[in-house]
């Protein structure tokens, strides 16, 4: 059963949790910087080491299936092997909520430079034989939905006018007539998934419950118009116009320790035993459109219910 986030819990942060909240924020910043770095053809290894050391400074440990067995025998989650995904374990102790102390174990899967279910690439060609005025056309319009596709989460656009102007080196206006006979689109998206297991501080890991699953992605979308022409009194010579968008997308409750614990308290702690399953704060899909609202592609993200579904 799919459980969606709602605003049923009053968001108040115990002062003793302020450091943990800051570390959650820092983790999010670092993990998306890391994913962006791993999209590069020539990875800056020095910068990657700097990020990894910063993650370790807030209690993160990089693990694989062997590490999980040898160093973390208490991990209840099954962590798959292989090198297609980087796995991170983060333990949070003594999180205070409603007068109770909780222990949270986060198992994090992140895309790396190899192929996996958390990495998305593709190419699409769009053909257009009509002349048209630039108007408010977009070269790239990317719309991401959250929570099983039910809610609009993020829209990122690149206007056709701005893309043309940045390429030809001088301004034209939205009334200019153009030709976009063939447009090539490609994309690269690296996803991360955070599985949050919660128990009371005085319990053992055998009593952990998976309460919160959240996902996000670092996204790059590239576009090139081949044979582009514009009419500024006469038709220009054909040329290629290229541009791109880069951004990160994730729900507000991504990696939220508060939501993991508050859901445990409200459902599991109250005797519900997690009947509804974990709560999801996840990206669902990104739909890409191009000039004249042409459909380019829709990319559906990994929506795992437990770590062993990530490979």
Describe the structure in your own words.
With 311 residues, the protein is an alpha+beta fold. It has one domain (15-309). Helix content is 21%, strand content 43%. The chain has 5 helices and 15 strands. Strands 1, 2, 3, 4, 5, 6, 9, 10, 11, 12 and 13 form an 11-stranded mixed β-sheet that branches. The chain has a 4-stranded antiparallel β-sheet with strand order 8-7-14-15. The two termini are 23 Å apart. Mean pLDDT is 87; it is low at 1-13.
Main attributes of the structure:
single chain; 311 residues; alpha+beta; eleven-stranded mixed sheet; 5 helices; elongated; disordered N terminus
Shape: elongated
Averaged pLDDT: 87
Query: What is the count of distinct domains?
Result: 1
Unreliable spans are 1-13
Ends distance: 23 Å
Share of residues in helices: 10-25%
Topology:
Elements: E1 3-4, H1 18-37, H2 45-57, E2 60-63, H3 65-70, E3 85-97, E4 100-111, E5 119-127, E6 131-133, E7 138-146, E8 151-159, H4 160-168, E9 177-179, E10 182-200, E11 209-231, E12 239-249, H5 257-272, E13 279-281, E14 283-289, E15 295-300
Parallel strand pairs: 1-13, 11-13
Antiparallel strand pairs: 2-3, 3-4, 4-10, 5-10, 6-9, 7-8, 7-14, 9-11, 10-11, 11-12, 14-15
Helix pairs in contact: 1-2
């Amino acid at each position: 059963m799919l459980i969606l986030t709602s605003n049923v819990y009053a968001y108040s942060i115990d002062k003793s949790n302020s450091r943990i909240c800051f570390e959650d924020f820092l983790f999010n910043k670092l993990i998306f910087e890391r994913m962006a770095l791993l999209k590069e053809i020539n990875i800056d290894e020095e910068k990657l080491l700097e990020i990894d050391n910063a993650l370790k400074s807030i209690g993160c440990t990089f693990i694989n299936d062997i590490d999980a067995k040898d160093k973390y025998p208490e991990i209840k989650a099954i962590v798959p092997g292989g090198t297609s995904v980087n796995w991170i374990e983060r333990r949070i102790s003594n999180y205070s909520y409603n007068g109770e102390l909780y222990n949270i174990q986060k198992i994090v899967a992140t895309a790396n430079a190899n192929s996996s279910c958390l990495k998305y690439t593709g190419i699409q060609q769009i053909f257009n034989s009509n002349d048209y005025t630039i108007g408010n056309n977009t070269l790239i319009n990317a719309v991401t939905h959250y929570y099983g596709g039910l809610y609009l989460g993020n829209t990122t656009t690149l206007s056709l006018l701005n893309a043309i102007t940045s390429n030809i080196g001088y301004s034209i206006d939205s009334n200019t007539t153009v030709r976009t006979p063939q447009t090539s689109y490609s994309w690269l998206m690296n996803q991360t998934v955070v599985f949050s297991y919660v128990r009371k501080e005085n319990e053992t890991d055998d009593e952990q419950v998976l309460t919160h699953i959240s996902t996000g992605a670092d996204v790059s979308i590239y576009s090139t118009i081949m044979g582009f022409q514009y009419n500024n009194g006469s038709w220009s010579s054909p040329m290629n116009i290229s541009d791109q968008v880069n951004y990160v997308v994730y729900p507000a409750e991504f990696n939220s320790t508060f939501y993991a614990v508050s859901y445990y308290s409200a459902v599991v702690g109250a005797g519900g035993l997690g009947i509804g399953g974990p709560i999801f704060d996840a990206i669902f899909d990104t739909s890409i459109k191009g000039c004249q609202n042409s459909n380019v592609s829709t990319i559906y993200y990994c929506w795992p219910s437990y770590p062993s579904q990530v490979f």
